[in-house]
Amino acid sequence: WEWFVCVIGAPDKLRYFLGHLFVEAAGRRHAAMSGHIGDLSSEQELTLKKFRERVGDVLSSEHDDPYLLRWLRARKFDLAKSEQMLRRHMDCRQKWQLDTAADWEPPEVLTLYQPGEFFGEDREGAPVYYDVTGNMDFKGLLKSARRYDIMKKVLRNGEICTRVLDEQSRKHGKVIDLVTVVMDLSGLGWHNLWKPALDLFIEMTRFSEQNYPERLKANYVLNAPRLMSVLYGMVQPFLAEETRAKIHILGRDWRDVLRKHIDPDQLPVYYGGNATGVNDDPTCGICQGGVVPKHYYLSEMGHWVKDDPQRKTATVTAGHSMDVAVEVTKAGSVIWWGVKTESHDVSLGLFFQKSSSKHSTKDMEVIVPVERVDCSLAPEESHHVCSKEGTYVLKFDNSHSFIRSKKILYYFYVLKPEQQQS
What we know:
This protein is α+β, with helices and mostly antiparallel strands. The chain is built from 13 helices and 13 strands.
């Protein structure tokens, strides 16, 4: 009331100044709202309603308000950016077949040596995920598995996370949509600063941020080495501001901190709690990674041999590119491709045109943007489900290299719908 009287009787300039104060205060109040169910401002409520209307064509019955709010919070309730992010995720779901990814069985080497596992819950019911990145043998994994499978396992974890959150919500009778992460960096050293390993780690981080946003409640980092600042500086640009604020690098008292947030009976003995697994396993079955045995290496298993009739060899000269085309005569066909270089990297991209006449890829529709891939250790393989008939062109681009030509071994073929079952 005193503010109201002051404004009524104040000169124009003072009223203008006080009006701005009210607007700023209101803005701070709305900014303080968390954006979760039960803590939405009137503007956020309206944005949620508009968002549901704009993306209704890609939603199903399981996509409730908490689901939509994740995408809105990830883009600070910017409607256009949130819609773009969600639609890209829906495209990703189709490309990677994420509706069935949680039931997909990864190659044995990834199950045994790509660490990480859910176990227990924190004191508020949020599930806890143990990320043992420090003990991951990036070089061994890249030599032993397709990059496609490594990335699909990252996405599979995201789908499993969705199931775990649903189970926790039913168990506690309330919405639980956030995960507590314990990241153990024991074993992380300068050997991890190997470019292909860093590229893979950054890609894994980016994939998770883009497709499973606003899932993190808190990330407690244990046993961080001195080079943590170097690695964090490389990953930081790919993390949302809100995510960075939830990262807590703990000191020597990390066991006490974990017990403060996680009941000891829900915390493995290995991490300072009381819980044990089968045969008194102190890690409770959480995969700890480790060095990948060489018998898993693809090169040791006879893969990608040069006398395989499906593989072709070529040389992409320095500063140039090479295009390979296939004709798709039936919608629903799947095109598969793979490439392995003798050394160093090459860029890959997939393009489409309706006619079979030769044109520059600059004039074609981009299906997969051209990106550099290091496929000297293990092949880069992927596929695309063709929604329309026409010519698909795979581009091997070496224009980024001015002096080094690249010898490649590759395949590029089409499976029609009736061939896919066999």
